[in-house]
Amino acid sequence: MSFIATPEFLHFPQALSLQSGARIRDYTLAYETYGTLNAERSNAVLVCHALNASHHVAGVYAGQEKSEGWWNNMIGPGKPVDTNRFFVIGINNLGSCFGSTGPMHTNPETGQVYGSDFPVVTVEDWVNAQARLLDCLGVQQLAAVLGGSLGGMQALSWTLQYPERVRHAVVVASAPNLNAENIAFNEVARRAIVTDPDFHGGHFYQHGVVPKRGLRIARMIGHITYLSDDVMNEKFGRQLREGLELKYSTQDIEFQIESYLRYQGDKFSEYFDANTYLLITRALDYFDPARAFGGDLSQALARATAQFLLVSFSTDWRFSPQRSREIVKALLDNRRDVSYAEIDAPHGHDAFLLDDVRYMNLIGAYFQRIAKEFA
């Protein structure tokens, strides 16, 4: 049974300095909280979201069907991250299109919609913005910061930017940076968007159009990378749509996998902002805490003082177990407290969102351990 979630909004008139050297002021962050902050303010858990997710982490919206939060199986009363014990916070990142200030909003400096003029944001910028919001909530130290994929990068960055504010970091299906293949996938997706005739240099809002063709292709590319080869073959194989015979056409949708990808692309193009997609994939590309240390990840992670749990999945080729093991090694080089689990799951990168019993039990056990610290 899901609980009712209520989105909230905080406005920040003061400027936030970004890594690019730009500044953004008069911005709003959308967020949700679940559970109750205890008297000692010691039970707060920040959940960081990935590319196409948001602050709506758990629960449902009143009167809205199919409105479950994107990690509703993980977070809630009696669930692995138990909101009877923890005060859980989900924050929508700057530049997103789900309530926080982003390219679809008005630039206070010009009175015009930002569009492609919205400043480039990084993982580090998001963490700084999240820290400001936590200040407003009276949370000075987090019991844990938790995230998967791009959310895991934010969790890792929290331990480096604000080491004294994080007791535990749970980094799932993530990496210390993107490899060349991942950057390449992101670039192909971005080119699909920016070369769409309806993109208009990122100012398509003024033309009353949306670059849906580019968004569809970008999402199709993404979905291919989120699924493992085994799952794709098991779900679709070489099945034709509706048992049809081959049409010998280069234009028709004939295979089930084609139909699935078209469906996902169509759905995505109806709700996701094209400029947001460009911004978030670029933030993924830029994340690399070791860069300031000559590529030495061990040196980069020396600042972290939190205890860590890292989780990877055997068939995740987008963020492979090897990448999580790089983080584990760097933390062990610094004699940090780190636990690591590599789960043999068939689902590919999407496994971090699914109900694998071993995975859920692992997260649940780790958070039970955290809860004992303030029981």
From TrEMBL:
Which sites bind substrate?
A: 219, 350
Give the matching Gene3D superfamilies: 1.10.1740.110, alpha/beta hydrolase (3.40.50.1820)
Which residues bear the site annotation Important for acyl-CoA specificity? 318
Tell me the active site. 149, 316, 349
Q: Give the catalytic activity.
A: L-homoserine + succinyl-CoA = O-succinyl-L-homoserine + CoA
The metabolic or biological pathway listed in the UniProt record of this protein is: Amino-acid biosynthesis; L-methionine biosynthesis via de novo pathway; O-succinyl-L-homoserine from L-homoserine: step 1/1
Protein keywords: Acyltransferase, Amino-acid biosynthesis, Cytoplasm, Methionine biosynthesis, Transferase
- The catalytic activity of this protein is classed by the Enzyme Commission as 2.3.1.46
Tell me the compartments it is located in. Cytoplasm
Q: Amino-acid biosynthesis among the record's keywords?
A: yes
- Which molecular function terms from Gene Ontology are attached? homoserine O-acetyltransferase activity
Q: Which residues form the AB hydrolase-1 domain?
A: 43-354
The family note in this entry says: Belongs to the AB hydrolase superfamily. MetX family.
Described purpose of this protein according to its UniProt entry: Transfers a succinyl group from succinyl-CoA to L-homoserine, forming succinyl-L-homoserine.
Describe, as the record does, how this protein assembles with itself and its partners: Homodimer.
Q: Which HAMAP family match?
A: MetX_acyltransf
Protein name from the UniProt record: Homoserine O-succinyltransferase
Name the species this protein comes from.
Giesbergeria sinuosa
